[in-house]
Amino acid sequence: MRLYWLVLGMLGVWRITHLLSAEDGPWNLIVWIRRRVGSGFWGNLFDCFYCLSLWVAIPFAWVIGAGAKERFCLWLAFSAGAILLERATLNEPATPNYFEHGGQDNAMLRESENSASGNDLQPKA
């Protein structure tokens, strides 16, 4: 198998999975389908990009793969590639930003009751 088939398979799985899970589609057709499937098994499948990519990768692996072992490995590789592409194209950070100031520089903390300023209820600047 050539490398470009692997890349094309990953891109195809990502594109179809993203279309089914996150886009409205032409003439709002995909939204209509998602509403029709409801909240059962199929509704949950359409809500989860990771789960849906496994199902979308099956026909790609079947067509592109040559044997049972290759099809199985391609199935997982196409799904993993689609997941990596999805995470790389997200507009929001994967983890929240966390900054630690040691507590004394935090504007939300109040000065202790024993402070000499006598202004205990004002936030520290």
Concise synopsis of the structure shown:
This protein has helices spanning 3-22, 29-37, 41-47, 49-64, 68-89.
Low-confidence stretches: none
Q: What does the largest sheet look like? A: none
Number of helices: 5
Structural class: mainly alpha
Shape: globular
Rounded mean pLDDT score: 83
Can you give the helix content as a percent range? 55-70%
Radius of gyration: 25 Å
Q: How far is the first residue's CA from the last residue's CA?
A: 63 Å
The total strand number stands at 0
Strand content: under 5%
Output the helix-strand order.
Answer: HHHHH
Structure description:
The chain has 125 residues and is mainly alpha-helical. The protein has a domain at 3-89. The chain has five helices and no strands. Helix 1 packs across helix 5. The radius of gyration is 25 Å and the shape is globular. The termini are far apart. The mean pLDDT is 83.
SSE arrangement:
Elements: H1 3-22, H2 29-37, H3 41-47, H4 49-64, H5 68-89
Helix pairs in contact: 1-4, 1-5, 2-3, 4-5
